[in-house]
């Protein structure tokens, strides 16, 4: 019975759980400070992003923990998709859009968060690939053994086990 979960991915998730509140507090504090000088559409975008990232991150981290530790492919795939699609592009937008008047502390925490997300995308992909291949192999072996049991042996009269004449 081979362990399929990934230790590097789990360590990254563990540190991400502790880093996210720090990132959130820094980002909200700096947003509060620069809010009056932002244009109206950037105000709306940043508030929407903070709500989206906060909700998505909680779901994403939960799916990552469950998918990796319990070796559940659907949960880990959900984690990978939530990391790849909404989270990573949003953080890259916050990191590289100069219209947001990015503060140096804000840039630093966004770089760390983007690093976590990038590593998790790569680690989750390879973990998912290994899990799917192993589970497919187990399924094929189970089906092979089931077919072997149903195949008539040399001493049988051609009837499958469990069937009556």
TrEMBL record:
Q: Does the keyword Aminoacyl-tRNA synthetase apply?
A: no
Q: Which domain of life is it from?
A: Eukaryota
Instruction: Write the record's keywords in alphabetical order, separated by commas.
Output: Cell membrane, Cell projection, Cilium, Cilium biogenesis/degradation, Membrane, Transmembrane, Transmembrane helix
- Please give a single GO biological process term from the UniProt record: non-motile cilium assembly
> Cell cycle as a keyword?
no
Q: Which residues cross the membrane?
A: 13-32, 44-65, 77-96, 108-128
> According to its UniProt record, where is this protein mainly located?
membrane
Q: Name one GO cellular component term.
A: ciliary membrane
Membrane topology note: Multi-pass membrane protein
Where is this gene product found? Cell projection, Cilium membrane
PANTHER family reported for this sequence: GEO07735P1-RELATED-RELATED, TRANSMEMBRANE PROTEIN 17
Q: Which family does it belong to?
A: Belongs to the TMEM17 family.
Q: How does it assemble?
A: Part of the tectonic-like complex (also named B9 complex).
Q: What does this protein do?
A: Transmembrane component of the tectonic-like complex, a complex localized at the transition zone of primary cilia and acting as a barrier that prevents diffusion of transmembrane proteins between the cilia and plasma membranes. Required for ciliogenesis and sonic hedgehog/SHH signaling.
Protein name as it appears in the record: TMM17 protein
Question: Which species is this UniProt entry from?
Answer: Dryoscopus gambensis
Q: Which gene encodes it?
A: Tmem17_0
């Amino acid at each position: 019975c081979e362990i399929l979960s990934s230790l590097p991915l789990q360590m990254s998730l563990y540190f991400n759980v502790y880093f996210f509140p720090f990132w959130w507090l820094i980002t909200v504090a700096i947003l509060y400070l620069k809010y009056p000088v932002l244009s109206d559409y950037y105000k709306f975008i940043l508030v929407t992003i903070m709500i989206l990232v906060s909700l998505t991150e909680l779901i994403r981290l939960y799916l990552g923990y469950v998918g990796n530790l319990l070796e559940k492919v659907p949960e880990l795939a959900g984690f990978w998709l939530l990391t790849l699609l909404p989270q990573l592009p949003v953080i890259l937008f916050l990191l590289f859009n100069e219209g947001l008047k990015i503060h140096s502390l804000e840039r630093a925490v966004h770089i760390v968060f983007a690093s976590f997300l990038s590593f998790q995308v790569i680690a989750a992909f390879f973990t998912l690939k290994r899990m799917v291949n192993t589970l497919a192999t187990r399924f094929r072996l189970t089906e092979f053994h089931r077919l072997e049991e149903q195949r008539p042996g040399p001493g049988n009269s051609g009837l499958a086990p469990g069937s009556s004449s």
